[in-house]
Write a structure and sequence with these properties.
The complex is a heterodimer of chains A (239) and B (254). Chain A is an alpha/beta fold and 239 residues long. Chain A contains ten helices and ten strands. In chain A, the strands form two sheets. A six-stranded mixed beta sheet of chain A has the order 6-7-8-3-9-10, sandwiched between helices. Chain A has a four-stranded antiparallel beta sheet with strand order 2-1-4-5, covered by helices on one side. In chain A, strand 1 and strand 2 form a beta hairpin. In chain A, helix 3 crosses helix 4 and helix 3 packs parallel to helix 5. Chain B has 254 residues and is mainly alpha-helical. Chain B is 70% helix and 4% strand. Chain B is built from 14 helices and two strands. Chain B is flat and about 65 Å long. Classes of the chains: A alpha/beta (239), B mainly alpha (254). At the A-B interface, helix 2, strand 6 and helix 3 of A face helix 11 and helix 12 of B. Bound molecules: adenosine-5'-triphosphate (ATP) and magnesium ion. The site of magnesium ion has 4 residues of chain A, from helix 1.
Chain lengths: 239, 254
């Protein structure tokens, strides 16, 4: 459960990137976050994790996102970064996957077992002992998603999870997202994926949420999408 | 480096603490040689050579990895021949000034110390090394700093290669970096590596990192490590105390 109340943020004074955001994302909901390049999707996610300071009130599971709650908030929220290169910092994929759980006090053997479970779920067994600097861009993205899933967070934020993935891996990720029971917020330009996975969509433009509603309705609204530098999902364009 | 350290050999299996202590002892011993003790230093070469042999790491790999730093280390003593001209040795009719000998000694010291550090890092995983530092009661902050530096060096190297590649692709036929681009290249490099370091650090925080690493379990201290420490200590003491090459030479030449 994530609650925004009149949340605002600006990188440079006087140039707000997000303004007056008020909305809530309920437990177990899967929400798509769409908007043109530079609309503020990544910024919004970083606010939720307390990586950037915000105005207004922002709560995760009832915890205000502020210094004293940061550790707890970050324990609950898993964040797949837009750039996987920055997500992985241990030498091998496995090391990276056990890093989080071990930090939260899980014994190494148990953490490895969990890592193996996640790898199997995503069909990534072959990546287990590979070196992070020697895997391809898409493999790295899959590995980054795996490191976050291995932490079993109760809220998952994904920034462009399907970018750089081949069709099979993209499907795997879509299926994995669909199976999750956690609260999910997924930012992407892959509107077909959003349509497949999300029940609700937020459209971000000019620092505001300009549309918030059922995915089916928003993603079929050609006029609305085009007004905000977007297009219909490919699967709906051919109709 | 991580890959070398993840290999397996008798040396890799030694206790990290034993390797660390021996390496430090060795480097101190090498550094403590007097400045004209060139012959005595040669005996110290035996230690790295033995380790290369046992660990299955090739000497050429070492020199390849260290190719950037080696010239710097060797440059340290180049002024000596000009400063110290007193004749120290005559080989046939050629007089060798003391400065040349002390320069060679200094260079050899540098190379030996580098080889020893390389061997330590190449046969020991960084996190188990840090774990053993922690066991020696080195403050956690320092150890974490060391580990992070080790990671960030990788980031910096990545950025340099990505940027020079991007540059080369748009500057065909140009060798190296044109002087006019140096300023912005360096500036960008700094900004980019700072950004990445910052993001990597956030990524660590997000996964529950506080201010200490969850260090890996260190393997138990087995007999081979004790043997290794004892032999190395004996060898270092012997090579430091007695000028072995000269002694051996003395047996044959009178
Ligand atoms: N570090 C920064 N300093 C200043 N401005 C920034 C910084 N990062 C992003 N911005 C600006 O903030 C705005 C929102 O950026 P953000 O990265 O959140 O966009 P986004 O919706 O994720 O875009 P994309 O689809 O390209 O990933 C952009 O206009 C961008 O120029
Ligand atoms: Mg973004």
């Amino acid at each position: 459960m994530i609650v925004f109340e009149d949340v605002g943020f600006s990188y440079e004074r006087g140039v707000p990137v997000l303004e007056g955001l008020s909305l809530s994302i309920h437990a177990g909901e899967c929400v798509g976050l769409i908007g043109a390049n530079g609309a503020g999707k990544s910024t919004l996610m970083q606010l939720v994790l307390g990586l950037l300071p915000h105005n207004g009130s922002l709560r995760v599971d009832g915890l205000e996102v502020e210094k004293k709650n940061l550790a707890e908030v970050r324990r609950r929220v898993g964040y797949v970064l837009q750039d996987s290169d920055n997500q992985m910092f241990m030498p091998t994929v496995l090391e990276d996957m056990v890093f989080g759980p071990c930090n939260y006090g899980m014994p190494r053997a148990e953490a490895e077992a969990r890592a193996d479970e996640v790898l199997a779920e995503l069909g990534l067994e072959a990546l287990r002992n590979r070196y992070n600097h020697k895997i391809s861009g898409g493999e790295k993205r899959m590995a980054a998603i795996a490191t976050i899933l291995a932490m079993r967070p109760s809220v998952i934020l994904m920034d462009e999870p399907s970018a750089t993935l081949d069709p099979v891996n993209r499907r795997t990720v879509i299926r994995a997202i669909g199976r999750m029971e956690q609260t999910r917020l997924i930012a992407s330009h892959d509107l077909d994926m959003i349509l497949d996975t999300c029940s609700r969509v937020l459209l971000l433009s000019g620092g505001h949420v300009v549309a918030d509603g059922p995915a089916e309705a928003i993603l079929r609204d050609r006029a609305l999408l085009e007004a905000h530098r977007m297009e219909l999902p490919l699967c709906l364009q051919r109709l | 480096m991580e890959e070398l350290a993840a290999q397996d050999s008798p040396v890799h299996r030694l206790h990290p603490l034993a390797k660390l202590l021996v390496a430090v002892g060795y480097i101190l011993a090498v550094m403590s040689f007097p400045k004209y003790a060139l012959t005595g230093l040669f005996a110290m070469l035996l230690y790295p050579l033995a380790l290369f042999q046992l660990s299955g790491i090739r000497v050429s790999t070492c020199f390849y990895k260290l190719r950037v730093i080696l010239p710097l280390v060797c440059a340290v003593g180049v002024a000596n021949p000009f400063l110290d001209r007193a004749v120290a040795l005559r080989v046939g009719t050629v007089a060798v000034p003391g400065g040349v000998i002390s320069m060679l000694t200094l260079m050899l010291k540098g190379v030996l110390a580098l080889m020893a550090s390389f061997l330590l890092v190449a046969t020991t995983r960084m996190d188990s090394l840090c774990a053993s530092l922690r066991r020696l009661r080195v403050p956690g902050v320092l150890v974490t700093l060391l580990l992070l530096t080790y990671r960030y060096v990788g980031v910096l190297v990545d950025e340099v290669s990505a940027m020079s590649q991007a540059y080369a692709l748009r500057a065909p036929g140009q060798r190296g970096l044109h002087i006019s681009a140096w300023g912005s290249f360096l500036g960008q490099l700094l900004l980019r590596s700072m950004d990445r370091a910052q993001e990597l650090y956030s990524a660590m925080l997000l996964r529950g990192f506080h201010d200490h690493f969850h260090y890996v379990a260190i393997p138990p201290f087995r007999r081979d490590s004790a043997v290794y420490m004892a032999t190395s200590a004996a060898f270092i003491a012997l090579a430091r105390g007695v000028d072995l090459p000269r002694l051996l030479g003395g047996l044959f030449v009178r």
